[in-house]
Every structure is written in structure tokens, then in C-alpha cells.
Amino acid sequence: MPLRCPPGALFVLTALTLSCASDPAPAPPSRPPPTRARPVDVDRRDRAPAPPPVPHLRLRADIDPGAHTVRATATWTAPAGVPWPTLYIHRAARITDARIDDAPGQAHLAVDGAPPPYVDVARPLRLSAPPGRTLTLSYTLALGEDPVADVNQIAPDLVELAIYAGWYPFSPAWRALTYDLEVTMPGDATVLTNATPVAATAPGRVAFRTDAPGNDVALVAAPGVHCQTTRSDTLQLRLCDTDRSAPHRRTRQTHFTDALRTFTERYSRAALDATATVVYAPRAGWGYSRFPLIVVSEERAARSHREPFGEARDTRGTVHELAHFWWQVADTSTDDDWLNEALAEYSALRFTVDTFGDGYLAAAWDDFTAACAKAQTGEPVIGTPADSADRYLNWYLKPAFALLAAARQDPNQMVDYALGAVFRFSYEDRAADAKRLFNQLSHHVDDAVTATLSQRLHAPGWDDATLAAVRSDLGLAPGDPPGPR
Ligand SMILES: [Zn+2]
Q1: All domains in the chain, ordered by first residue
Q2: Helix or strand or coil: residue 310?
């Protein structure tokens, strides 16, 4: 597969916490989108320069689900001239050997050191060795029986490992990496990763190699998980789940392939050519994306299905992750990351409302206003920091509803077209920000609609009048006055 996607990091950390209530409302007037020739070059990616070299990880892992352990050897090869950054690994790892360029060295865990962002279980490694280009660490890690960060574990019914488990030495400074991975594990579980399978080198061993830089080594294997691939004229979808998901399998395939086709039509072809693999992992916890692998919670989805609009909520949560095939346009290491989440959540909300109707929108709105009532900071959407207590409200929910209101109010129906332009101009440099968003909106969308959206995204908290105005712009029937926030 050609390297069409620029290197970039993605810590798409998504808590899917929506609850729902029924509140039917009339459907908005539907207006056909105007046809207009696209003024931008949709195929710029075909002329993209080769990405710069990134660190490469060679990882050999023997996983014992019954003992909750992994025994591994990790070799990092850094680009020439790049000094070693601080590396981290799970605090319970036991380093058995360390080498740099095959010269013996020492590595020990600074167990009293601070963890890196997002990986509370990891601690810094202190290296004592000559400088060099390759670092090889052998280690064992026992994860115990409790899931790490609610989502990672080594257990007989599920092996799920990503950076949250700190299961290989990593550095937050390396925001893009390539890897090759060999795994041995007893049993015949299908092993899924965010890389491409390659021919096994030995019986009982599976191997993978990345086609393009990513930001994590993610692996899911469970004896009860099976996959089905759906042919598609856009991104191909592989849906993996257990028999517990059987009643929802067909509708999920339909909705997810619909979403991929819809986003391709709205925003143009995704930046990453790959089969989108969605795994409903048999666990609780939350979902995350490691392209082209998306892992969500089968247990959470099952709980959704027992509540009103359960299918819609299940769909919205997973489609948010699928939307990140497009919305990786802003730098995830900065507060501009709000734009990735806002656009993914808007895309998912709009698709879900289009699919399930405005009864679902009314229910989602009620959940949203309940979340607004619990806001802690009064920060505006644009300006909410990544570590804010209101991150989910301000990065995901508020802009999603504000954009949907704008889309429904724009007389020219050009909001999605403008967002497609943001995608096409930003998937390479990943430098989209509010300025670039409003630049495109001002080119294509009605001025008054753009001004209202800007005011809402810059407003420090949303008062009752703002909530009422957004609700009206969404076309929802007037309801009870929203509560305090
Ligand atoms: Zn997201």
C-alpha cells in the first residue's frame, strides 16, 4: 500500500458517555444540497512528498493469557542524528536485558518518576549505555487480572494491548512510528492489530507490519471474536465481535458502511486507504481508534441497546471513531485537537440524526443540556484546554450541536462542503485550527450563519438564551426552559 498518509500522532481518547430519552420532534425541512464544482484539488495527496523517516519498533512478544503475562524483546531503531528521548514502560515491567547497538547497557525503571500523558501505569526508563541508533530491551510484564485503564488486559477471554498498558517501551516524543510485530500466543484466537498481517515465520506465530506511520502498537485477540468484511465502494469495513453482538451485526454493517459512504461524499476520499476494522471488544470501558483499527466496548453497546434509542447511541459512538478517518486534521498535541473531536462528533451526530430521525435528536439534546447543567468551568469551546474538566462537553458536544444548527440554518447547505475543504487542505499538514475552519466557512457559508457559529464557539459557557437559540436553529420544538449550568 502506498504511503499516502503523512506521519502523525493520534491519541484519540474517547469516553462514549451518552444517555438518552425519547422526545419526538418534527423533522426539519429538507433541502437538496446545491451542486457546485469543487474548486480545490481533491487529489493533492497523490503528489504528497514521502514522509520523513520515523522511529521503527521491532517487537517480539510471547503472550500467556492464562498467566496474564507477556515476555517481549523490543528493538527501537531511531532515525540517524535523533537523540534518545525519555522512554516509558509499565511500572511492573522487569527489564532482563538492555543493549544499544548490541553493546551491553543497563536500563532501570524510575518507579518514582512521573508518568507520561494518558498512560498512568507507565514510568520513565533510565538508560545507562553508549549512544547509538538501536536500543534493544528484553522484559517481562505481568498485568494481573484487573484491566488497565478499563480497556487493556491479558486474560483468557480477551487480550487487548495498546499504549494504555505501557506494554512496550514508548516515548510521547515519538508521535509517529512504524513497527513490525511477531506474536506467539496459545490457542487459535484471531489476532487483530493496527498493522497488516504478513506471512507467519513459524507455526503458532503471527506477524504484522505497518504500511504507514501510526502512533501505537494496538492488538486485540479473543477466542470468541470473529470478523466479517463488507465490500464497499469507499473504505472497506471489517466488523469483529462476539456472538453476543449477533442481533446487531447486520444493522451495524449497514450503518457503518453507510457512514463511510456518506463521509466520502461529503468530505471526499479518506486520507488513509485501508480496511476500517471495528472491534466490539468483550469488555466494559470506552473506545479508541488506532487507524485502521477501532476498538469499542461490546458491553457498553449492549447496555445502550437496553435503553431508548440504543441502536442510535451505539451507532453514534462507533461512527464518531470512523469519522476520525477524516478528522485527524489538527495537531493532537495542542489544544487545536478540539477540532478533530468536534468534527468527528458533528459528523457522527449528523449521520445518526439523518438515520434515526429527529426523535433521536431531541433525546440527544436532552442529554446535552443535562451535561451543560453539570459544566464546571464556563470555558469557551475555542480555548478549552485538553486537561479541562469540561473537555468532553466543550470539545465534542457543544461544537457538534452548534455545527448541526449551522448546517440546518445555512440557506446554501454548504457547511459540509466547507468542512470537506478543511479536510482537503489539512490532512497533510495536520495544522487545521479555528482560523482555518472559519476561513473555509466564510468562503462558502452564509455570513450570518458563520457569525452565529463563531459567537457560540467563543462564548464562555452557554446561557439559557444561547441554548434556546441553538435548539430553535436545530428545528426542535420548544421545550421546557433548560436548567442552570
Ligand atoms: Zn474522537
Answers
A1: 12-50+228-474 (1.10.390.10)
A2: helix
Distances (CA, A) of 134 to 80, 148, 192, 214, 398: 10, 29, 27, 20, 46
> Ligand 1 centre and the CA of 283: distance in Å?
19
Q: How far apart are CA 164 and CA 11, in angstroms?
A: 10
For residues 104-116, one letter each, b for 16 or more C-beta atoms within 10 angstroms of the residue's C-beta and e for the rest, the string is: ebebebeeeeeeb
Residue type, 1: M
Assign residue 198 a region: left if phi > 0, alpha if psi is -120 to 50, beta otherwise? Answer: beta
Whether residue 11 is predicted with pLDDT greater than 60 in this model: the reply is: no
pTM over the 0.70 mark = yes
What distance in angstroms lies between residue 11's CA and the mean position of ligand 1's atoms?
9
Which among 360, 365, 193 is positioned nearest to 292, based on CA atoms?
Answer: 193
Query: Residue 419: is its pLDDT beyond 70?
Result: yes
Among 29-43, 157-171, 184-198, 259-273, whose mean pLDDT is lowest?
A: 29-43
Give SS3 for 111.
coil
Distance 153 CA to ligand 1 centre (A): 22
**Distance (Å, whole) CA 18 – CA 309:** 11
pLDDT at site 51:
56
Cα–Cα distances in Å, from 258 out to 231, 236, 237, 307, 355? 12, 11, 10, 23, 9
**What is the CA(352)–ligand 1 centre distance, in A?**
16
pLDDT per position as a tens digit, 181-220: 999 999 888 999 999 999 877 778 999 999 989 999 999 9
pLDDT tens, 130-161?
778 899 999 999 999 999 999 999 999 999 99
Phi, psi dihedral angles at 448 (to 5 degrees): -65, -40
Q: Say if strands 12-14 and 226-230 run parallel, antiparallel, or are unpaired.
A: unpaired
Whole-number Å distance, alpha carbon 173 to ligand 1 midpoint, is 21
Please identify which residue in the block is written with the cell numbers 485537537: 337
Comparing C-alpha atoms, which of 135, 158, 132 is closest to residue 145? 158
Closest CA to 371 of 330, 403, 400, 337: 400
The helix (run of H) or strand (run of E) holding residue 228 is strand 226-230
pLDDT score at 117 = 86
Predicted local distance difference test score (pLDDT) of residue 175: 83
Phi/psi at 134 (nearest 5 deg)? -120, 140
Residue 409 has pLDDT above 90, yes or no: yes
Residue 418's pLDDT is what? 98
Contact call for residues 326 and 45 (beta carbons, < 8 A):
no
User: How much distance in Å is there from the Cα of 386 to the middle of ligand 1?
Assistant: 13
